[in-house]
Amino acid sequence: MEAYLKKIEEIIAQGPYTDTWESLQKYRVPEWYQKKKFGIFIHWGIYSVPSFGNEWYSRNMYIQGTPEYEHHIKTYGLHKEFGYKDFIPMFTADKFHPEAWFDLFEQAGAEYIVPVAEHHDGFQMYKSKLSHWNSNEMGPNRDVLGELSAEAKKRGMVNGASSHRVEHWFFMGHGKDFDSDIKEPLKRGDFYWPSMKDGNEFGSVHTDSVPTEEFLQDWLVRTCEIIDEYHPQILYFDWWIQHFSVKPYLKKLAAYYYNRAAQWGQEVVINYKHDAFFFGTAVPDVERGQFAEMKPYLWQTDTSIALNSWGYTENNQFRPANDILCDLVDIVSKNGRLLLNIGPRPDGTITQEETDILREIGEWLHVNGEAIYGSSVWRKYGEGPTEVLEGQFTDGIRKNFTSEDIRFTTGNGYLYATALKCSDDGKYCIKSLGILDASKIAHFSGIIRDITLLGCKTAPHWTQDGEGLKLQTDYKTDKPVVFKIQID
Fold first, then answer.
1. How confident is the model at residue 309 (pLDDT cuts 50, 70, 90)?
2. Could you count the other beta carbons within 10 Å of the beta carbon of residue 9?
3. Residue 183 CA to chain centroid, in angstroms?
4. Three-class SS of residue 405?
């Protein structure tokens, strides 16, 4: 630990970045990330074994009175006799084949992956020198993050890693409230360490439950170990790193990561939530939601195929592929990108429901991807009557888009106008592309030369007038419709 902390300080001192917001504001989002629009998030760990509730099983099973607490006793027995750690041998991953996973990711049209390297439960999904409680030494006895990172690089796909470690400070603290397998004394390196109480302000950035220097140093070194061993091009952080006590360590982590990337000749990205990082030093992320308007800065949405859980459960409620596609188009038109999560089973297989949804998304992207991949925003993100509610945890609200809801992107010298729903009568009117008074310079006044409809051999019939660009086609689909517009 001491040697690694010294190494971190040495790397920071070498530059070009130091651990201050002023220095870190010199960071620029790499061009490759600006072009990437669709990635796969992977929540896979011990929590997939009980497959009950959601990926917070390790916390909720120790909170008396919760469904998880009652289910655990009924199914596995008393906590003092069978605790969360006892799921580890059941996490076999005996059917885990990275090649099969990536075949599916490629079919889905994904451009990058972000596996969870360590979730709140504290079990590392990679080979580590800092704790024996990891997938390489226990459970499947495999370096999961290492295998996925290697396969990503082999496929030419961007590899990432996600750390949720900081929440482990309080995540399993309620196991001390009764006779369970979480007992003092606990020391660094133990699976359940430190299991502290979260106080009365759960999730607050000012909660009285302040992580100790020892824990925060451990968090920093664990994260730097991931950087050094796996060279992720994307480093994603979940919430609670915005806690005031973590801020100095975030600056050190960012400076270390950016400096190491510079040494290796790489360009990298940090994703964060809740203003954990100073604006401009990393890329903000909106969990299970999106923005209502286009933003002048790059951002990301992370959401899951399942509405009720990020990890595998036996009763996952899956979102339709078309809803996800509409969100993808909307997000990209507003300068965002979508990180879509799956939750494999404990044996390493991916459910048929997730497989079907990913393939359906990929089929649409195979035809219409030029409106998404490498695209840029237009002068406005879109038009239409359907309101997109802004903020986190809104992905469960069905938007019911209409054929009047249009989203714009640009790329390859074309303007793409995507109707989020196919018109029943084949007629569309894009108001933003109508012929308007030339004095209204804020409106469109370009010359439309040609229009094609992606996936359709027959070009649409079109005219322009003061109401808008009017199109007529016989093309029918249950997915978004993309018009490719050549403009002078």
1. very high
2. 13
3. 34
4. coil
CA angle 397, 401, 403 (to 5 degrees): 175
Q: Which of 250, 196, 198 is nearest to 224 (CA)?
A: 250
Tokens 């951002």 belong to 299
Residue range 427-446, pLDDT digits in tens: 999 999 998 765 555 578 89
Average pLDDT value over all residues in the chain: 95
Q: Which residues pair with 303 in a beta bridge?
A: 340
Q: Which residue has the tokens 């196919």?
A: 422
Write the pLDDT tens digit of every residue in 56-86: 999 999 999 999 999 999 999 999 999 999 9
Closest by CA position to 128, among listed 1, 250, 239, 311? 1
Give pLDDT, residue 256.
98
Q: Which residue, among 37, 36, 39, 40, has the nearest Cα to 344 in the 3D structure?
A: 40
3-state DSSP assignment of residue 382: strand
Number of other CB atoms surrounding residue 429 within 10 Å: 17
The number of C-alpha atoms within 13 Å of 79 and in the hemisphere containing its C-beta is: 25
Q: Is the pLDDT of residue 112 over 60?
A: yes
CA 121 to chain centre: 19
Within 8 A by CB and 6+ apart from 104, the residues are: 350, 355, 358, 359
DSSP string of 109-146, one letter each residue: T--EEEEEEE-TT--BSS--SS-S-BTTTSTT-S-HHH
Rounded Cα distance between 117 and 144, Å, is 8
Q: Are 485 and 448 in contact (CB under 8 A)?
A: yes
In DSSP terms, 16 is beta-bridged to none
Q: The pTM is what?
A: 0.97
Q: Which two tokens stand for residue 370?
A: 């030029």
